[in-house]
Amino acid sequence: MKHLLTTNALSLEEVRMIIEEAQVFAEGATWQPEQQTFVANLFFEPSTRTKCSFEVAERKLGLNIIPFEVNASSVLKGETLYDTIRTLESIGVDAVVIRHSEDNYFSELEGKLKTSIINAGDGCGHHPTQSLLDLLTIQQEFGHFYGLKVAIIGDIRHSRVARSNADVLHRLGAEVVFSGPEEWFDESLLESGKYEEIDQAIATSDVVMLLRIQHERHEQDGQDGKEAYHKKFGLTVEREKTMKAGSIIMHPAPVNRDVEIADELVECERSRIFKQMENGVFVRMAVLKRALQEGGKINVNHHQKWPIAY
Amino acid sequence: MKHLLTTNALSLEEVRMIIEEAQVFAEGATWQPEQQTFVANLFFEPSTRTKCSFEVAERKLGLNIIPFEVNASSVLKGETLYDTIRTLESIGVDAVVIRHSEDNYFSELEGKLKTSIINAGDGCGHHPTQSLLDLLTIQQEFGHFYGLKVAIIGDIRHSRVARSNADVLHRLGAEVVFSGPEEWFDESLLESGKYEEIDQAIATSDVVMLLRIQHERHEQDGQDGKEAYHKKFGLTVEREKTMKAGSIIMHPAPVNRDVEIADELVECERSRIFKQMENGVFVRMAVLKRALQEGGKINVNHHQKWPIAY
Amino acid sequence: MKHLLTTNALSLEEVRMIIEEAQVFAEGATWQPEQQTFVANLFFEPSTRTKCSFEVAERKLGLNIIPFEVNASSVLKGETLYDTIRTLESIGVDAVVIRHSEDNYFSELEGKLKTSIINAGDGCGHHPTQSLLDLLTIQQEFGHFYGLKVAIIGDIRHSRVARSNADVLHRLGAEVVFSGPEEWFDESLLESGKYEEIDQAIATSDVVMLLRIQHERHEQDGQDGKEAYHKKFGLTVEREKTMKAGSIIMHPAPVNRDVEIADELVECERSRIFKQMENGVFVRMAVLKRALQEGGKINVNHHQKWPIAY
Q1: Which of B52, B70, B130 is most worth mutating to test chain C (most C CB atoms within 10 A of its CB)?
Q2: How far A74 CA lies from chain C's nearest CA (Å)?
Q3: Is A176 in the same domain as A238?
Q4: Which of B52, B257, C137, C181 has the greatest count of CB atoms below 10 A from its CB?
Q5: Is residue C206 in some structural domain?
Q6: Quick one: C132 and C268 in the same domain?
Q7: Among candidate residues C186, C177, C135, C179, the one with its CA nearest the CA of residue C157
Q8: Does C242 touch chain A (CB under 8 A)?
Q9: With an 8 Å Cβ cutoff, is C74 touching chain B?
Q10: Looking at residue A52, which CATH number applies to its domain?
């Protein structure tokens, strides 16, 4: 039983194994555990997109999913997260997928449970399956990470994905730059990359990775604020024209159309936004297989050879 | 992939094919898609009855159902319906069943998606699977539609089912009359049938189709209002005695007992109310099969011959 | 089709058959109905723990589960429980598991439905599967009930489990004593056992069965109230040291740590709290099999012989 809590805790070897396996699933491989296996998805913060993606991945692996209604749960009566998961463990749940509003909610759980924990997002902390699906998408496109320039644009400070992606891409040898409003940048990010002005970042990067503006967090923004953001920091139709040949657009979705990205670019040729979602299922299959499988060898039969360039 | 949006858009040939196939399912036939197939039920308006019926139909066809929680969805964060369904499409969902409070919500989606859309009710607009299950129930009873007299009684103006049923029954050669409070009738209905006084309508029809009084819409009605409605426009024990030999009672449910229909008549011999629900599963199986199957041929093996009289 | 409504209505022979069959499941036996079988879990009061346990049990039996969202249901529009279940019956649901806030909600349903009803808790009334899993846990430990002393401690008056357990344990020949705040005891309990002072009850019983303090019901209790309760009526570290050799601790969970029981005792060697949860799945499998199977014979193949001492 292996947890997946953060990408930072994964060695590059583990990162590569997961995305390699995900690619194998993307090409149609199947795998099912030998015994009837139970999982539960505990989404203490709502997220249809991520939850639905896990639900598809779980069903593709033939897992049994125990519906867990957070609003009806004893957690509301003050039960600890440990007791909740220990209960699920007792009734036979082999792995839990958790999204929680608290940063590092899992630190109190480590070492105490046999059930595998897969982190589907913690506070402003981590969102490892999102990072891994981003990596898979980049790998599919370029075949390697080394030497690529990746611009991460938007509310970097509050983004789970920005930090994880910046760290792992930096470790994989990519050049990472950050852009967007300077007040959303912070010094701690300098370990992974430097701040760059928006037009330059867009014009010179292989991957333009936009982050969602969380209007939930920035309530002042009305329609005016949205238009102003789009003009100053969004991927406008004009800016897209300056992008390098072969470069791609990514966004974790849901997209605010005409804020982070112009409406007509969401499904343009450069866009990998829906491809990312597609890849999310395969990454989650790989992560679930890793969590449920003793050992962790790739035992899927597949004829194809997929060369991974590191 | 074929959508099912309205009965109006179905040719009579298509209507007949669906109810014929539904009857085949009612007699125990089975069908499963060749590949693992995913559906999602998006009920933006609650409806346990219709949703549960689809859920049974989907499981009888061996489909994988991705739970979609409207209250947790990005739709609440302003995501368009298109983006929501496009996301589900990306993660592998082959068909979506949608109930939505907006009339013709599907008009913005047509032609843009590969995923099949099955309309499970839109605003005051349409509810095609309800119409089709009503037709199946009538077909089972009488073997034909031509020449039957069908009375549709109640809040016709706000009923999704009344208009669809009136249109398709009229096209199939039945005589349709409307009854109930005259202020709930309107001129546009004259295309399909005329208004008739309640006692005559009940005494002369082969099918007495009652509509649910939506107390949600008519808030003035207290207990007095309910009793008054029952006396004036409900199927009372006395009125039932005037019904023609062989005539039947229908209601889309949930029933307001002692309002549209006397409590003791809900499961009387003439009543097909629970039969309608039973048929709902078979109609939805037929509609899902049609949506998921390339082409649309009936390839179910069945020994029985079911003569359909048109 | 057999209902399970209360333990009081079960003969001792039936109780023994259910826990024997549950033990067979605990040892790895499997059983599946011959035909595709549908169940629905209607939890009008939330309870993740019990619901999840039923969900696992149902999936282990290969049943198809129709999700039923109480908040979206027509029950809220005034539909009777009978009409709701009759609807589910019409669409093909073979058994329903119900939790409801009303005592004896099932009395209006008996004899009217073909669908099996399994009571998962009614008001302050009954919770038969909890009782049965408690019995299974005691049986596994001691091999018999006759002559055991069982102390039930806490809010006995409002506990569904206390009454059912006291009655059935008394019938099975155990000595039952009640303890905790005297104002939570009442005369009607004297049929099954007498009140005993807390220290004596804990020191002399084979089974110390703690009940959950329902802070929902006793709102006055702040942190002070909790500490005071723990000192006066809780299983403190000191009291545990006075327990008999071989005696065990039980609690229906969720536990209020440091209220009914000291935090460090929750998973101590004497504790069967998580074992109870584990057993819950097997008891529910047995109860569902009993509900779905014509007749009720044990037809599971198993090599092992499990001697049940009565």
Answers
A1: B52
A2: 7
A3: yes
A4: B52
A5: yes
A6: yes
A7: C186
A8: no
A9: yes
A10: 3.40.50.1370
How many C-beta atoms lie closer than 10 Å to residue B307's C-beta?
5
Structure-block tokens of residue C126 = 């009954």
Q: Which two tokens stand for residue A261?
A: 């990205």
CA separation for the pair C207, C19 (Å, rounded):
18
pLDDT of residue A1: 64
CA distances from A124 to A106, A178, B103, C122 (A): 14, 17, 39, 41
Alpha carbon B39 to its chain centroid, in Å, reads: 20
CA angle B51, B56, B57 (to 5 degrees): 95
C47: left (phi over 0), alpha (psi -120 to 50) or beta: beta
Q: Which residues pair with B98 in a beta bridge?
A: B42, B119
Q: Which residues of chain C have pLDDT under 50?
A: 295-310
Please answer yes or no on whether C254 and A67 come within 8 Å at the CB atom.
Answer: no
Domain that includes residue A85, residue range: 12-127+277-292
Laid out side by side, the sheet with B38-43 consists of B64-66, B38-43, B95-100, B116-122
Residue C114 burial (CB < 10 Å; 0-12/13-18/19+)? exposed
Instruction: Write the pLDDT tens digit of every residue in C18-66.
Output: 999 999 999 999 999 999 999 999 999 888 899 999 999 999 999 999 9
| Å between C193 CA and nearest CA of chain A | 31
Q: How many residues does chain C have?
A: 310
> Nearest CA to CA, how far is B106 from chain A (Å)?
20
Give the nearest partner residue to C49 out of A78, A87, A92, using CB atoms.
A87
Of C38, C67, C84, the CB nearest to B67: C67
Contact yes or no for C36 and B49 at CB 8 A? no
Question: How far apart, in Å, are the Cα atoms of B85 and each of A48, A115, B159, B190, B289?
Answer: 12, 33, 27, 37, 20
Same domain assignment for residues A57 and A94: yes
pLDDT at B219 over 70: no
B73/A contact by beta carbon, under 8 A: yes
Task: Dig out the tokens for B191 from the structure.
Answer: 């295309």
Do residues C174 and C286 both lie within one domain? no
Our count of domains for chain A comes to 2
What whole-number percentage of chain C has pLDDT above 90? 76
Chain C residues whose CB is inside 8 A of the A79 CB are 254
Which residues in C lie closer than 8 A to residue A93 (C-beta atoms)? 52, 56
B91 close to A (CB below 8 A): yes
Q: Within a domain: residue C306?
A: no
Q: How far is B191 from chain C (nearest CA, A)?
A: 33
Q: Does the structure show a pLDDT above 60 at B297?
A: no
Tokens representing residue B198 in the block: 């309640």
- Cβ atoms of B176 and B218 within 8 Å: the answer is no
Structure tokens at A60: 């593709």
**Count of pairs with CB atoms under 8 A, one residue in A, one in C:** 68
Assess whether pLDDT exceeds 60 at residue B106: yes
Residue A301 in domain: no
Confidence of residue B218 (pLDDT cuts 50, 70, 90): low
Q: Is C66 on the interface with A (CB under 8 A)?
A: no
Tokens of residue A223, six digits:
């329609």
Rounded Cα–Cα distance for residues B272 and B276 (Å): 6
Say yes or no to pLDDT of B295 above 60: no
> C48 and A74 in contact by Cβ < 8 A?
yes
Q: Does B303 touch chain A (CB under 8 A)?
A: no
pLDDT at A310: 38
